Amino acid sequence: MATDVDARVLAAAENSLAAHVRPGEKIVAAVSGGCDSMALLDMLWRLREKLGFAIVVCHVHHHLRAASDAEWDFVAAACARYGLPFIGRRVDVAAACAAGGNLEAEAHRLRHEALEAVRQAQGAQWIALGHHADDRAETVLMHILRGTSLKGLAAMPLASGQLLRPLITCSRTELEAYARARGIRWVTDESNADTRYLRNDLRHRVLPELEEINPGLVRALGHLADSSACAWEYLAQEAQNLADSTRYMRAPSWCLLERAPLLSAHAAVFSALLQALVEGYSSGRSTLRYEMVAACRRLLAAGRGRTDLGGGVVFEVTRRWLYVGRRPEGEWQRVEDGSWRQEFLAAQLALGDDFGVRAARSGDEIAVKNLGHKSLKKIFQEHALPPLLRQVWPVVYDIKIKEVIWIPFLAESPRLMYYNSVTFLKVHLNITLAEQSACVDVE
User: Fold this and answer.
1) For residues 57 and 42, what is the distance between their CA atoms, to the nearest angstrom?
2) Is the model's pLDDT at 195 over the cut of 90?
3) Contact 26, 125 (CB under 8 A)
4) What is the DSSP letter of 118?
5) What does the pLDDT look like over 89-100, one tens digit per residue?
6) Angle, alpha carbons 389-392-393 (nearest 5°)
7) Would you put residue 84 in left (φ > 0), alpha (ψ -120 to 50) or beta?
8) d(CA 157, CA 170)
9) Taking 70 as the threshold, does the pLDDT of residue 2 lie above it?
10) CA R_g for the chain
11) Taking all residues of the chain, what is their mean pLDDT, rounded to a whole number?
12) How far apart are CA 126 and CA 26, in angstroms?
């Protein structure tokens, strides 16, 4: 029996690795010292020459348990026996939670940040994790109980970005049998028995009871995750196509989309697009709940309103535009080369010494051809610029005549041409804002 398990588990790991890892690539193996990660380490070591990859082992010390120092030494000693390089990293989870963060979430975030830093420093292509089929079933069930989307059902895929889970089709029982057959020792994290944590309660109480109804539950939940991942991949591509066809401005912390095409988009595609944007702009792990998506769809249909999506991300819609991103901040500043910059907007303005740039102020006006003057507030309203962006939108003014002469992408004063004809100067103003450009040339 042990030989059969050994062969099946090793073959599963080999197939998973061969499908993604190319000869000459390097893998960072995340090893905690538990049974799953020690079995993973052993399999990687056995397959390294056959598949032609290199291995670096990383152990993350969370400073949460008295046994953490001993586990560090345990993994380091195992690496010495295998003849593999050991890299240890320490993270302070307690300090990260001091501001009110969730213990499990902060530990996960810091651990993955440490692993990614090691991957980059080592020039590795992959981070191998010891997640198995039972872990995946627990995660899917946990997401269902908390409320989730299709993406939440597509939990723990074999490969995601630089993360690789070679054991995801193997059960916990199989990995323990493999470890015993191979004479592999491991450490036990006593906190895994604490059923005050939802995952542990599912593992020790809920899943065993459900398996009395369906003995193949772990496999069934794995199939649900696989089929959900397939469907989500399609939706994600459709969402990207929608974004590409509607995005007007894009910056690292926000984007501006045309409202009209979004109104006719399928609800599932809109939801997938919103999920992708929130994940991209959120300050931490984001959870876009069903109620949030429903609220956004109502606001989109109404053509006005704002809502908070968590993680510092805001959704705001006008009759023409949809804004998704972080709350605007910062001021326009002149830099050494003489240009003006606004970091949040990802904007740079090239102006002569006669001009300045700032955000709009109460009472600001701009001259409009044949119409006298118009308030900036009115111009912003006519163009349906989201109120959040109005706080930082560039307003170019003439230092000498103390008048607003240009609102990029929105309005240009005829006074600019008059002023230029009097002084016989060549005026060239240009701006790059969130990957869009505009300019004014007057001779």
Assistant:
1) 11
2) no
3) yes
4) H
5) 999 888 888 877
6) 75
7) beta
8) 13
9) no
10) 28
11) 90
12) 7
Residue 386 φ then ψ, to 5°: -55, 135
Q: How far is CA 77 from CA 49, 73, 87, 180, in A?
A: 22, 6, 12, 19
Q: Single out the residue of 1, 4, 6, 47 nearest to residue 178, CA to CA.
A: 6
**Amino acid letter at 79?**
C
Spatial contact of 343 and 329, defined as CB atoms under 8 Å apart: no
Q: Determine the length of the chain.
A: 443
Pick the closest to residue 385 from 243, 193, 254, 197 (CA basis).
Answer: 254
Helix, strand, coil percentages, rounded to 5, for the chain: 45, 20, 30
* H/E element, 150: helix 150-153
List residues bridging with 315 in a β-sheet. 307, 324
Residue reference for tokens 């020790």: 204
Q: Which of the pair, 434 or 157, is modelled with greater confidence? A: 157
Angle at CA 136, nearest 5°, toward 44 and 113?
65
Contact at 8 Å (CB) between 308 and 283? no
Asked if 365 and 397 touch (Cβ cutoff 8 Å), the reply is no
Residue 119 CB partners (closer than 8 Å, separation 6+): 28, 125, 126, 127, 162
Rounded CA-CA distance 402/308 in Å is 38
Cα–Cα distance measured from residue 362 to residue 413, given in angstroms and rounded to the nearest whole number: 18
β-pairing, 26-30 vs 313-317, is unpaired
Question: Which residues face 374 on adjacent strands?
Answer: 366
Statement: residue 372 has pLDDT above 90: no
Q: List the 86-90 sheet strands across, edge first.
A: 86-90, 54-61, 26-30, 126-128, 163-164, 159-160
pTM of the model: 0.81
Dist. CA 12–CA 19, nearest whole Å: 11
Contact predicate 185/38, CB 8 Å: yes
**What is the DSSP secondary-structure string of 369-397?**
TTTEEEEHHHHHHHTT--HHHHTT--EEE
